[in-house]
Each structure stands twice: as C-alpha cells, then as structure tokens.
Amino acid sequence: MGKVSYKKLRGSQNLRQRLLLATLSATPVQVEDIRANDMMPGLRPHEVSLLRLLEKISDDCVVKINETGTKFQYKPGIVMGGRHLVHDCGVSRAIGYFLEPLVVLGLFSKKPLSIRLKGITNDSKDPCVDTFRSATLPLLKQFGVPSEGLELKIESRGVPPHGGGEVLLSVPIIQSLTAVTWIDEGMVKRIRGVTFSTRVSSQFENTMIHAARGIFNRLLPDVHIFTDHKAGQQAGNSPGYGISLVAETTSGCFITADTAVSYARADDGGMEGEKQELVPAEDVGFVVSSLCIMPPRCFKDSCRKASNPWNRNTKAHQGFFGC
C-alpha cells in the first residue's frame, strides 16, 4: 500500500463540515493547531465523539489523534450504514450536533442507516430533536429524499447537565439528489410546535403555550402547539422545560426557533450541583414565538442578541445547513 497523502487544514472552524466533505469525497485530512493557544487546547469531547461516530458507521476508517488533541489525521472509509447501531453522544453537546452531518452521510451509505443516539435531546446551543424532526427532515424531501424510511423517533428526553435522552434515527439510501432553486421565503401560513417538560410540573408547558399564543393568535388562526410531558425513565436525568416552534410558509420554507431551560453544564460556567435561577416559562414562550415570526433575513447573531433578553438561552435555527 502506498503512502497516504493528507490534505492539511488548520484550526477547529467548521469541523463538522470539513469531516463531512472529506468523507463524501474520500479525501484524507490532517487538521493542525486545534485551539493551540487556548487555556484548554485541543479537541473538545463532542468533537472526539463525532470522530468515533464516523468510525462506527464506516468501514476502514482511521482516526489518529495526538496526545494533546491539537492535531489529528482522518482517513475516511466507506460509509456502510447498518442497523441496530448505538452511539453515546455524551453531554458536551446535544444530539442535534451529531444528527445534522449524520443524516447526510446516511443518505449516501451502502445500506440504510438505523442508529440509536444517547445524550441531550434539548438544550440552548444546538437544534433540538423536535426542530430536526419538524423542519430538517421535511427539507430533505425537497431534494428528492423519499419519506419512506426517513424518521426520527424520540424515545426519551434529556436536558443538561446530565442528559439521559434517546432518539432513534432511520435514514434510507438514495442514488442522487434533486437540484432546487429556492429564493422566495414566502409568507407564514401555519405554525406548529411542541413544548416539553422533564422532572418538573407540566404547568410549565401550559404557561409557555399561553404566552406563545398571545403573539400568534393576533397574526394567523392556524396554530397548533402540542405538549410532551415526560416522567420516569423517559424524563432523563435532569429537570428542564422548553419549546420548539416551526412556521411553514407558502413557498414550503420552514422558519424555526427553539430553546430549552435547564441547569448549566460545568463547562458553561456553572458549578456542578449549583442551583441557578431558571428563566420563567412565560418569558420562554414569548421570546421564542417572537423569534419564530422574524423574517429569515433577520436571523443573524446581531438580531438574535438584540431581541433576546436572556443573551444566551434562545436560538433561531440556522445550524449545519445554514442559509
């Protein structure tokens, strides 16, 4: 066998996209200077977990990480897919961080993909699993992905800091994608959403729905927000609550906003076991519903911060696919 020629890259920017494109194009990459000047240099736990996930769904994939984690080599293999796979995503980032590149790779695998992901289903950093199911999967259908076999099942929920959620992702294989020209966002014609609560009173959900309807009912009549209260093992390991909203437009575009309220992770600046004051459920419903009806051109960091009185716990989803 000949010597492997690696394409050299620097830094940790857009790491998921780099790994996705390297895998699809079968291009070995070597990434250097990963946070080399930070107080905590090297790959983060969720980035290492993503590399291990790529190993799990691929055949003949090779990952080599140096001792400090500031450099790694990634030689992609053949994406095989497969059924009954299981991966623990950890609690550094939510499952949505892994779902976005995983669903693309699953489309081009040798076999249909069925994988169980464990970890955090809802947080304030990544798109929650409800948003992914309500917006990302229908978006893929616009590119010719069949609805048969494309499914995300939420079996239990988990929020920071300890997670405990589980989802089951199923992705069919395709031969090619259909090109799409899509420049008109259209006008909002209906709004769907879901609230959730884990290890807290279900009254939090009713309060969020009441606040959201206070905005939506003045604009359009077709609004349905469902509740999903979890208890027992399906409620994960930490208390929390949140909401996911999807506004569908006349052109088939999906405008989404979601958030989850829970106690902070230790790496988010909180102390393990420290009881912080949580954002009131009424404010959650009001702010997220306001973000959901923003024009898509205003979904930028500056606009989100200006309209976000918390400065941290709400996001309008652009995510992996962007705009």
From TrEMBL:
Q: Which GO terms describe its cellular component?
A: nucleolus
Molecular function (GO) terms for this protein are: RNA endonuclease activity
Domain RNA 3'-terminal phosphate cyclase intervals: 10-198
What is the top-level taxon of the source organism? Answer: Eukaryota
PROSITE patterns under this entry?
A: RTC
Q: Which GO terms describe its biological process?
A: endonucleolytic cleavage of tricistronic rRNA transcript (SSU-rRNA, 5.8S rRNA, LSU-rRNA)
Q: Which residues form a coiled coil?
A: none
Q: Which Pfam families match?
A: RTC
For this protein, the record's NCBIfam families field holds: 18S_RNA_Rcl1p
What is the name of the protein in this document? Probable RNA 3'-terminal phosphate cyclase-like protein isoform X2
Q: Which organism is it from?
A: Populus euphratica
